[in-house]
Design goal:
The protein is mostly beta strands. The chain has seven helices and 20 strands. 47% of the residues are buried.
Length: 340
């Protein structure tokens, strides 16, 4: 953990005034139809340089890697934990992306009961523009190996930084990487909460992440299930009731033009990479000295018994007073217009 502690020692806490916005339900990914409006990535993903191959939908379902639990109706998204992988092979995993893209003025809520955990495991719940280098990405939840916390971050092109943000004593997250174009972390925070990652996240039955993608700022909240201030099926969200965000980036993070030239419509993405750029970089600090790929990915898959998501729902909202549009990957279709 030495390298990470050195990074965190340079942190500054974020301060930001949070304005009130009312959001209305636009799209609900849940129940038996959870996977219907996601695209499954098929093949090797060079962007993470991981030890996995992502499986297409039909195969993932037949292998039990992307299924609906018959009792809870929760979505289960898994790494293959049963196959013996040869030294020159790759282990099957899952990466799904919403067919719709969501513009500024959107808010999405992920109800997660279990997150992937363990050595060699690099799970991320995030969003990205079609061209991330031009249109940015938002990381809501990112775990690595056996760390007992998670990351939240923005990834942008050059010109966005959190270096001028100051301390807010009510805030619960710490900036340890300030340049949003950092290729590994982006401008990232980590949290001092006891149940925001790793084994403790699953021990406490997960929680609910709220991500607001607004022109005034991007904010993320986390709530244990018992503390979430709305009914799980609420069709409207008032951000004032959410309280102080766990992490927030005002539009000024990207200079006087704000997010106008930095962020483009976002697709929501859920994936589990294995080792990869970040998992390899932090492997010795979090799992002991060794080689992530040969120690974890190949041979017996029992190491990945905890490498799965259990997700109750992903629900997307848009501003009631404004206009939020979403376009599918196959055609340019307006899903929502302004509401009078």
């Amino acid at each position: 953990m030495l390298r990470l502690l050195e990074l965190i020692s340079t942190f500054s806490l974020l301060t930001c005034q949070v304005s009130s916005v009312m959001y209305e339900l636009l799209k609900d990914y849940s129940g038996n139809n959870f996977f219907d409006d996601w695209d499954f990535f098929n093949g090797y993903d060079s962007t993470t340089a991981g030890g996995e191959t992502y499986d297409y939908a039909k195969s993932a379902a037949s292998m039990g890697l992307a299924v609906i639990d018959t009792k809870t109706k929760h979505a289960l998204i898994k790494v293959d934990s049963e196959t013996d992988v040869p030294y020159d092979g790759r282990r099957l995993s899952v990466k799904i992306t919403t067919k719709a893209t969501y513009d500024m003025g959107s808010l999405w809520i992920a109800d997660i009961f279990h997150a992937p955990f363990g050595c060699g495991v690099w799970p991320t719940f995030w969003s990205s523009a079609q061209n991330q280098s031009e249109g940015g990405a938002i990381t809501t939840f990112e775990g690595v190996n056996k760390q007992d916390f998670s990351y939240m971050a923005l990834h942008t092109k050059e010109g966005c930084s959190t270096g001028n943000l100051t301390v807010d004593p009510d805030h619960s997250s710490y900036f340890f990487s300030t340049n949003c174009d950092d290729p590994l972390f982006g401008c990232a925070t980590t949290t001092n909460g006891p149940s925001l990652g790793g084994a403790s996240f699953n021990l406490y039955n997960g929680g609910i992440f709220v991500t607001e993608y607004a022109s005034s700022g991007i904010s993320i909240w986390f709530f244990p299930h018992d503390n979430y201030p709305f009914p799980s099926n609420s069709s409207q969200i008032d951000t004032t009731i959410l309280g102080v965000p766990t992490a927030t980036w005002p539009a000024s993070t990207c200079g006087p033009d704000g997010f106008t030239n930095t962020f483009q419509p976002q697709s929501i993405i859920i994936n589990i990479s294995l080792c990869g750029n970040l998992g390899n970089a932090l492997y010795n600090e979090t799992c002991g000295f060794g080689n992530c790929f040969t120690d974890c990915v190949v041979r017996n898959g029992s190491n990945f018994a905890e490498a799965y998501y259990e997700i109750g729902s992903v629900r997307v909202f848009h501003t009631i007073s404004g206009a939020t549009t979403a376009t599918t990957s196959s055609s340019s279709t307006t899903l929502a217009n302004s509401i009078a």
